[in-house]
Specification:
The structure is a single chain. The protein contains 14 helices and 5 strands. It is mainly alpha-helical. It starts with a helix and ends in a 19-residue tail after the last helix.
């Protein structure tokens, strides 16, 4: 019996040593994405204008990195806190994330190469791997000219100091898996607008439509065959709200919508002041910053529509506002 216990003890020690070695290797070897120290961003007037358009109406850096006012329709950002971070993102069982300050008050010591690595590769200045709620897999495939435009705009933000932002909380084993997620960027050229589906695919990707309109499992992995089918649940408004099905299914998606109806859905909110909502209205609020997307050009919205209509129709009827009062 003593021999068996000794053998068991040795095996336990060996397993612990192996686990410690594996953990040490994981922290030593990952993330493995170096900084391009010579990288420079020239803030030309044309680049700043393009960056402002992309930020304000497409990629939404300041939408995620600013606290939003959920008492108003679509949760507009608090302008006095633009870019200062602190917005909370509830990942359910996976954990909790908080957006960081991206104004020069926080990024002033960052080199252009470090900023590029964070946005397109997913590694912070201090080597911390970012969770891909920060959509670096998409930005890493964005045209490099557009990336430079966005970063030039971010550099131009007014410095805003922020109070202590809570540390992120990722559940095991996601807190270890996240170290393997960052990867080198593979920038693709912007397709010609003359090819509406290819250009629409590009615009759909960088405006992050799939990130909110594709349901995921409890580890954050998109469900196979459900791309753009809606049903992802959010609680940021204070109530449960689920994303819509935007596949071309005629009954449960946007298959019956014309291009004009799709564009008008967004343009109806252009240059409007978001209304303050009562409690019952807040139960039917949206996390989608449609008042920001409303400033997208009609050509870009039409391209997104063309691409979405080219996708596989998925039957998925979504109860978008499960906490809304029921009518009898």
């Amino acid at each position: 019996m003593k021999t068996v216990l000794k053998i068991a003890g040795v095996l336990v020690v060996l397993l612990l040593v192996a686990a410690a070695a594996g953990l040490g290797y994981l922290y030593y070897a990952f993330p493995n994405v170096p900084v391009t120290s010579s990288y420079r961003i020239e803030a030309t007037p044309e680049r700043l204008a393009r960056g402002k358009y992309l930020n304000d109406h497409v990629v939404g850096c300041t939408t995620c990195h600013t606290e939003r006012d959920w008492t108003k329709f679509s949760g507009p950002v608090k302008p006095e806190r633009l870019g200062a971070g602190g917005e909370a993102f509830n990942l359910g069982p996976a954990g909790m994330l908080y957006s960081s300050n991206i104004t020069p008050a926080a990024l002033g010591s960052w080199t252009d190469g470090e900023l590029l690595r964070a946005v397109t590769n997913g590694v912070s200045q201090d080597g911390t791997p970012l969770f891909p709620l920060m959509p670096y897999p998409h930005f890493g495939a964005m045209a490099e000219d557009d990336v430079q435009a966005v970063l030039a705009h971010v550099r131009s933000l007014k410095p805003v100091e922020s109070a202590s932002i809570p540390e992120r909380k990722l559940s095991f084993p996601l807190n270890l898996i996240v170290r393997t997620m960052p990867a080198a960027a593979a920038h693709q050229p912007q397709p010609s607008a003359q090819d509406p589906i290819a250009y629409g695919r590009y615009m759909t990707r960088i405006s992050l439509c799939s990130d909110c309109h594709t349901p995921i499992d409890d580890r954050g992995t998109p469900l196979p065959g459900m791309e753009f089918a809606g049903g992802m649940e959010f609680v940021e408004t204070g109530y449960r709200v689920r994303s819509a099905n935007i596949t071309p299914d005629a009954d449960t998606g946007i298959g019956s919508w014309t291009e004009q109806q799709f564009i008008d859905k967004f343009k109806a909110f252009e240059n409007t002041t978001p209304a303050t909502l009562g409690d019952s209205e807040r139960r039917q609020n949206t996390v989608m910053p449609i008042t920001a997307y409303a400033g997208m050009t009609r050509e870009d919205l039409a391209a997104i529509y063309a691409f979405l209509r080219s996708q596989k129709p998925v039957v998925n009827r979504v109860n978008r506002f499960p906490d809304a009062p029921t009518t009898k």
